[in-house]
Specification:
This protein is an all-alpha fold. Helices cover 75% and strands 0% of the residues. The protein has one domain. Helix 1 packs antiparallel against helix 6. The model has no long low-confidence stretch (mean pLDDT 90).
């Protein structure tokens, strides 16, 4: 479960970073700013790779989250980087990622609560509990 928590955390971080890279930036500025464009592509790549690595059980638990979309976009960025439509990336980061991040945060909260419950169950009993150890 720890791995899944880390992957979703990476997804949140990459999606948030992608949003910040396009905030206040129009498409023309994005096309001329190579560092910003490359950073945006990198963050979409990280987002998609983390989504692809998630366990199917986690994906199945949250079926309303479009897990496959970031992975498909990652494949497009990696295998067709020379023909990426920056308008699609800009629109995705601006319009779709905020809601996606909210969904991821909600999933992360639920999974962290489950992990906390599991760790409480894994605590071995105190061998001295109920024993009078007074001198």
């Amino acid at each position: 479960m720890r791995r899944e928590l880390l992957l979703i955390g990476e997804m949140i971080d990459a999606a948030t970073q992608a949003q910040s890279l396009v905030a206040g930036t129009d498409l023309d500025a994005l096309q001329t700013d190579r560092q910003r464009r490359d950073a945006l592509l990198w963050n979409f790549t990280v987002l998609g790779e983390a989504a692809a690595q998630l366990d199917d059980e986690v994906k199945g638990r949250f079926p309303d989250i479009p897990w496959a979309q970031p992975a498909r976009l990652r494949n497009r960025v990696i295998h067709g980087y020379w023909s990426i439509d920056l308008e699609i990336l800009h629109t995705t980061a601006t319009d779709l990622l905020p809601g996606f991040v909210d969904q991821l945060r909600n999933a992360l909260i639920a999974l962290e609560a489950d992990a906390q419950d599991e760790s409480v169950l894994d605590v071995p009993p105190d061998p001295l509990a109920g024993t009078d150890v007074s001198p």
